[in-house]
Amino acid sequence: VSAGNGCGHTLLTPHSGTLSSKNYPGTYPNHTMCCWQLQAPLGTSLLLAFGDVDLEPSEHCAHSSLLLADPQTGTAYGPYCRNSVPSAPLLVTNSSTVTVLFNSTSHRSGRGLLLSYATSQHPERVYRGGWMAGSPDPPLTMCFSVYCPAGCKDIHGDIWGNPSQGYRDTSVLCKAAVHAGVIADELGGQVTLSREKGITLYESAFANGLRSKRGSLSEKRLVFHKVCCLLSPACDDVLEVVAFNASSWWHEVNALGQDRAWVAERAALSTTGHSWAAEPGAEAAWLELDLGTRRNVTGIITKGSSEQHNYYVTSYHISSSRDGRNWRPYRGSSGQEDKVFEGNADSQGEVSNTFIPPMVARYIR
Asked: Count of domains in the chain?
């Protein structure tokens, strides 16, 4: 939990999380405070990675400070500010509970703070801000693994590239992992990647709620590897749709009185010309895909119809069924409420969304 008027971007889960001061990386406000209570499962301990601690210097950090307390052992860490920084980028505690307290009085400068944490179940390399802690960079093409905490999607920093090309090595690593669909931002998790030779141009893409940037040549690039695909190459296959169905479709009549049906079968991504469209004014419209047999479905790609009409879907829900009668809404990794997927912003580009976890179903709506 977090409380106070100085809290910035915060996502806390039992196994990992990310937190920052208000306005980060802009100057943090005057006369503000935030208190975060971190609670890991019993039997585990917390590891805190300092991504950035830039608080205006003062004697004994009296004007602005970061203080960490372990109530189980009575241990305190800090106070920290610009002239009293943490001695190491990774703090290993012996407790499953840590209180993080940030406060400020009057000041002129300072980005504030960015922290991430994980539990002792993931001790090898905990991602922190724009870089990693725990070991030196691996050589080119060597696969390595890092743990990305929950909450990286909305931290400050850019990514260049896309899942098929890879990402410029200057990209924020765990943010790129969310874009690539190898982890869910709500949970974080272990990612496997390699540093490979850079390419001439990285193309922009919208995927999993993030827009990457178009970027030029870099010396190296980051390539994410889905472990399931290392074991079973078929998990990246494009699934064949045996039949399409829809709640309704639009019968367009043009100025010459000619009829054109925007039927469900035209929803296939490879279709040229017009697409599927629901009847105008229809509420709760749905499109249904029959995969012929139960399949492991790991994601979806959507695109609008650019022929004559600038049509596209901006957001949608997903439901699945094994028999075509009983439907289960997709709730994603949190499992608390139906997940709303962010769709297209124009009729031209393709948008990818990954299902984490995947679903096993014959029918998708």
From this structure: 3
215 and 278, same domain (yes or no): no
pTM: 0.79
Q: Which domain holds residue 45?
A: 2-125
Does any domain span residue 131? no
DSSP, res 27: P
* C-alpha–C-alpha distance, residues 259 and 329, integer Å: 35
Burial label for 174, CB within 10 Å (0-12, 13-18, 19+), is buried
Q: 167 and 266: one domain?
A: no
pLDDT, tens only, 117-140 = 999 876 556 655 544 444 445 555
Q: Are 249 and 355 contained in the same domain?
A: yes
pLDDT at position 335:
73
Neighbours of 288 (CB within 10 A): 19
Tens digit of each residue's pLDDT (9 = 90 or more) over 294-304:
999 999 999 99
291 inside domain: yes
Q: Which residues contact 21 (CB under 8 A, 6 or more apart)?
A: 6, 7, 8, 28, 34, 102, 112, 113, 114
